[in-house]
Each structure stands twice: as C-alpha cells, then as structure tokens.
Request: fold
Amino acid sequence: QVQLVESGGGLVQAGGSLRLSCAASGRTFSTLSTYAMGWFRQVPGKERELVAAISSSGGVTSYADSVKGRFTISRDNAKNSVYLQMNTLKPEDTAVYYCAAQWSTAWGLPRTHEYGYWGQGTQVTVSS
Reply:
C-alpha cells in the first residue's frame, strides 16, 4: 500500500515562497508512475480543498482558482516524489497541506473524493 509523507511547510511572510515535497513508499509499492497525485489544504472548521492535481504521466494538471498563477505542481516519478511550489503566498493560504494519491490513467485526474491514499499533512503559515 502507498504511504505518503509531506515536508517543507513552515512560516513565511506574505509574498514569500515555500516548496512542499511528498515522498511515496510502501511494501508493495513499485513506482509512482501509475498514480495521479493531488495537493489539498484544510483549515479548522472547513472542508479539505483541492489545491492542485497532476496526472500520472505529468502531462495534465489542474489548479484551484485561488492559486492559479501562484502555485505549481510537479512530479519526479523516478524519485517517487511530488512537489508543490508556492509563490506570492497570502495569509489566506495558511492551512495544513496534504498530499494524496490515486491509481489512474496516464492523462486522468481523479475527482476529489476518489483519492485513496493520504499523507499526514504539513503546516503552512503565512503572516501578514
């Protein structure tokens, strides 16, 4: 089964940048190349929100309107890793960020509720 571990969170001033990483592993895990990946975020009292997603091939991506032009999702299947580059951060971006995975086709993007594997999350705090 796939295990995901996020890292790279922290405290930054508004306008700053952070790069989140997600490392995948597992006893029966062979390659990340068959999994679509997503980054989600959540604040207390609110539903988890899809921030960005990338197909297993890396050829298709999608972003929440609130982060378009500021965040970039990428992957390195050889390293079994997925990344989220966050630029021009705003206080509204403050949340716990989660990495998620789901087996999919090369060009497919799972729906939010379809992701079956989740990391523990990493805190991102943006001060004003």
Observations:
- Residues 12 and 107 are 34 Å apart (CA to CA).
